Amino acid sequence: MLIVIFVFLLLVSFTELLGWMGPVQRYFTFLVVTSFLVYQYKKIKQFGKEKLLSQEELKRTNEVIQALLTTTNINKLLSLIMDNLIREKNFDSAFIYLIESINNYLCIATKGAVALGGIKKFYLHIENQDKIIQQAVKTKLPVMVQDAEKNPLVDKEVIGQLGLRQFIILPLVVQDKILGLIIIGNSKTKINFTSKDLAISTTIANQAAVALQNAQLYSKIQELSILDELTHTFNHRFFQQKIREETELARRYESTLSLAILDIDYFKNYNDRNGHPAGDTCLRQVAQIISHNLRRTDIVARYGGEEFALILPATSKEGAEKILNKMRIDIEKYPFEFAQNQPDGKLTISAGISSYPNDAKETRELINLADQSLYKAKHLGRNRVIVCETIDTAEKI
After folding, report:
1. Domain extents for the chain?
2. Considering the entire predicted model, what is its pTM?
3. Cis peptide before 171 (omega within 30 of 0)
4. 175-200 exposure pattern, b = at least 16 Cβ within 10 A, e = fewer
5. Domain boundaries 236-390, corresponding CATH code
6. Dist CA 193 CA 49 (whole Å)
7. Do 99 and 108 contact (CB within 8 A), yes or no?
8. What is the pLDDT of residues 177-208, one digit of tens each?
9. Per residue in 84-126, pLDDT tens?
10. Which residues are catalytic?
11. Which residues pair with 307 in a beta bridge?
């Protein structure tokens, strides 16, 4: 019965985000997640029998695992893992490291640690670590160290950084793939670790690995559901959601908000003459230039085929016009391949800007006015930025 609950709860949490997928993609994703849960749940039962855990310990461990498997937020999941490991056997420290690829080197990056009341964040490079950590990564098996000071395989500098006198290393492994490590232990007092300590911790770590992979999958699905696959900017659906939210925030805090819609000039000509692969490359490069000119609080989305929409919170029309003109010049100067084949001998953009609350107080009107401004920019000869109030008097830049 418990396995049915696990599967049901997790799959329900995916339902909203799976709506964008096709039937084949949806079936495959459900199959992968379900197979993980079934396989790992069987391992829990078998592991409990082999390690002779008491019924109470097995029940408590299962409750922890149920909580892990129904948590899809990675940060909450990491905190949940640490809290339960520390509380389970009174460890005073827990560190979680996820293996990431950085500059083609594998390193272990901490995502959170509960130790001496604080969060510690730093990197442990696998190749430079002591033999104990290398052993855990290579064998994918847990390692228990009763006394770090007396163990010849332990690098005293590394353990000094962690502040541990004794510890257990628990690899996070799913289908023979290592996702990271959990290091739990004590920095002050020392206790005698038993095989039961290792059994319970390992059981939780095994399921934590599955939960972590599920959370990463959930995060990836969520990311894919709001991003444009080609340009890696936000998609049109996400733009519509955010422009409503940002307009409401501007209204609530009596702030300003500018919206810009820009279009690549003569893009159909570019596609027809140079081919769609070249057009795709051009779109990606334009998206990168746009993103480079924006703040972290700004939002860029692919609005249509060659159109992009920019949401600029707390930005006046004058400020938005300055940003868009710099962007326009950067794109005009960029050495796009085949740019010489364009009617003006270069690749350019046109943009229209509207602002809340000066031009419009409702989202739909704000979008319409920005779109009208863009149309005016096109009509006046392209390669220009038009703000809503200057539609009738704009001159070419």
Report:
1. 1-90+191-225, 91-185, 236-390
2. 0.56
3. no
4. eeebbbbbbbbbbeeeeebeeebbbb
5. 3.30.70.270
6. 20
7. yes
8. 888 888 888 887 777 888 888 888 888 888 88
9. 776 666 678 888 877 765 543 445 444 334 433 333 344 455 5
10. 306
11. 263
